[in-house]
Amino acid sequence: MLSQYKPGMDGEEFKLRAKEVIDYMVHYRDTAFKRPVIALNILKSKVADLKKFIPLTVPTHGQDSFKDVLKDLDEFIVPRLLAWDHPHFFGYFPAGNTYPTILADMLSDIYNNIGFSWSSGPALTELEMIMMDWWGQALHLPRHFLFQTHGGVGGGVIQCSASDAVFMTIVSARQRALEFLKRKYPGKNEFDLVTKLVGYISREAHSCQQKGANLASCRIRVLTPNKMNKMTGETLERAIKEDLHNGLVPFFVGATVGTTGTTAYDNLWEIGAVCKRNPLIWLHVDAAYAGSAFVCEEFQHLCGGLDYADSVNVNANKWMLVCYDCSGHWVRDRYMYTHGIVITPVYLSNEIPGIIDYRHWKVQLSRRFRSLKLYFLFRVIGVKMIQEYIRNHVRLAKYFEDLILTDKRFTVTSEVHLGLVCTRLVGDDILTEHLVAFVNALGKIHVTPTRDKGQYVMRLCITYEFATKEHVLWRWTHIQECDRGYKFAKTVTELAAFKKIVLYKEK
Q1: What tens digit of pLDDT does each residue of 215-247 get?
Q2: Alpha carbon distance 194, 197 (integer Å)
Q3: pLDDT in tens, 340-395
Q4: Gap between the Cα atoms of 3 and 392, Å rounded
Q5: CA of residue 462 relative to chain centroid, distance
Q6: Which whole-number Å values give the CA distances from 351 to 120, 151, 155, in the listed order?
Q7: Cβ-proximal residues to 403 (8 Å cutoff; 6+ apart), any chain
Q8: Which residues touch 297 (CB under 8 Å, ≥6 apart)?
């Protein structure tokens, strides 16, 4: 009996529809400035209302035309997105989205390689190894993190996110420490030994470090940074001595270069020296955002002390023009990194001695051909253009800071290192909270808050790929107008939005 299966689209129709989608994608990017960062009516609803427009029952037959699907996408779904690539979006951190890397993503889909091992896609594994070395060279990472180092045991892998990199590092550090404890206490149960382990992060570290420790069932101490939001060697050493005295075993330190809140960077020289005196400690450096700046000579001081690190992660999909996902994770010793977590069932036993099998480097077994994005990035765009892109963002952040300093109602709360400016209104926190809420409620720009030294702060990050001084000046003028609240509410809707925010906060 012949199969009744027929694909929803053949090759000829795919070519036609792909052209339509590409045209749509280019139009979407070219007209971003004409749309709000997020539609005002979506913000007003405060609920997930998409189910009003999309049936809750799955279609049995795919009878809708592709044009209808695309039309509904544009009418119902896209307006309910937060436009990260908008000229007036400066919340969170940048999200790379260049055309060459998008094309590479499309190609990876058509090749459809699931590269969990070398034999499942030889070029996928080998290109990733080469790209991790290219990327490491561009960032001026210590040579012990590269595959090509003569006689070295380091190397890198593309993870889905910094969270994956941190979690895998904590698991590897835990396994290394447990092996030491098993030799020291041969009769002890492994689960009891885990309770002896303790790691250390700063209060300013990203939440993924605490989350990774929780997932690995490991105790983490959160240390108080200094006035510059930096974790210091002195603070770390004092905590380690206390825990050693109490019979605990320090096994992990998570340092940060470019914190999410304020882009502060921990003192790696001091922290590294402390870790070196405690050789069981695995020092990991989270440089998810700021690490991309290492491509520029003037920012390489930020990675001073990285020689001490056992691992480091940097997100190309943040500040390096690569579309999501692409998080680089380099380790000093790839054998130590994977030792203790290698599991090889019969159906995966076709490994070749001496060949990298990336399935041992991450949680997921299946892997996408993400190294193509780096290959296209470096060959089409190149390091020089990446440097200019980053330098432009830094210049604009300093310009933003200068604008803020001319208004006595505002204060800049932390040093502007890279592309992020943190500011707040002079006075009680409630003033800045109202301002952030009102700015986002209008939907013309988007900002995100944080807490800095206990105070509520507004983060203003340069994120738009083609940002200019005109964009920054318009945003700042809008923020100033929003601070005047009632006086500058131009419509009844805006005034109602402001009143609603104030009433909600007062409750």
Answers
A1: 998 999 999 999 999 999 999 999 999 999 999
A2: 5
A3: 788 777 777 766 777 788 988 988 888 889 999 999 999 999 999 999 999 999 99
A4: 58
A5: 15
A6: 10, 22, 18
A7: 472, 473, 476
A8: none
